[in-house]
Design a protein that fits this description.
The chain has seven helices and nine strands, in the order ααβαβββαααβββββα. The strands form three sheets. It has a five-stranded mixed sheet. A two-stranded antiparallel sheet has the order 6-7. A hairpin with a 6-residue loop joins strand 6 and strand 7. Helix 1 packs across helix 2. The longest helix is centred in the N-terminal third of the chain and has 17 residues. The structure holds zinc ion (2 copies). The site of one zinc ion has 8 residues, from helix 7.
């Protein structure tokens, strides 16, 4: 296994996401650029244990990123921070370095300039996002990411049971309050109301 061509990734992204769209191309390009900057040639294979990806939006582009990186939520290698930005940070745990890549706001305008004859803006952007240089699509910054031990894939710790609801909690996500162990829901972060 190693990196595939953009068109191969497009096929895989279409399957995973349900349709091919400009966001898929942008997400694929973003992940490929991240792998290039980190010099990781086989993210989903030989390098899979050294890579963690943070994504900052729950939108089309986000679905395309794991297609390249292999970083999935269920593997604990994909971290979601809901900042509402088309941005991702690729962390190489082996080299202790990370790069954050942000989609440039000017890309849409550039797509219009490149392909004024294409009516659909999605088609226009798909075409342009395949061809535009990385630097025109993205802004990058090298960053330091302090990943807590319990956030690293492969972290092992005993599960604990919430003193209030009895449900079990993994990865140190419990809250200790007045000597009691509580899940985050019972500690006040509940996002649902029991009926
Ligand atoms: Zn889409
Ligand atoms: Zn609870």
């Amino acid at each position: 296994m190693s990196l595939k061509s953009l068109s191969e990734y497009e096929r895989l992204a279409e399957q995973a996401h349900g349709h091919l769209c400009a966001g898929q191309i942008l997400g694929l390009r973003m992940a490929l650029y991240g792998m290039k900057l980190l010099a990781l040639a086989d993210p989903a294979g030989a390098d899979r244990k050294r890579l963690v990806t943070f994504v900052e939006i729950d939108k089309c582009a986000t679905d395309a990123i794991p297609v390249v990186t292999g970083c999935r939520l269920g593997k604990r290698a994909l971290k979601f921070r809901d900042f509402g930005k088309v941005a991702a940070t690729f962390c190489d745990l082996a080299e202790h370095r990370a790069v954050r890549i942000v989609a440039r706001e000017t890309s849409r305008q550039r797509a219009r300039e490149l392909y004024p004859a294409i009516q659909s803006s999605n088609q226009q952007q798909m075409r342009a996002y395949r061809e535009m240089p990385d630097e025109d699509l993205f802004e990058t910054q090298w960053v330091q990411v302090n990943l807590a031990a319990e956030d690293v894939p492969g972290y092992k710790a005993p599960r604990v049971n919430c003193a209030q609801c009895g449900e079990s909690v993994s990865f140190g996500r419990e809250v200790r309050r007045d000597g009691a162990v509580l899940c985050r829901a019972c500690a006040g972060e509940r996002y649902y109301v029991p009926l």
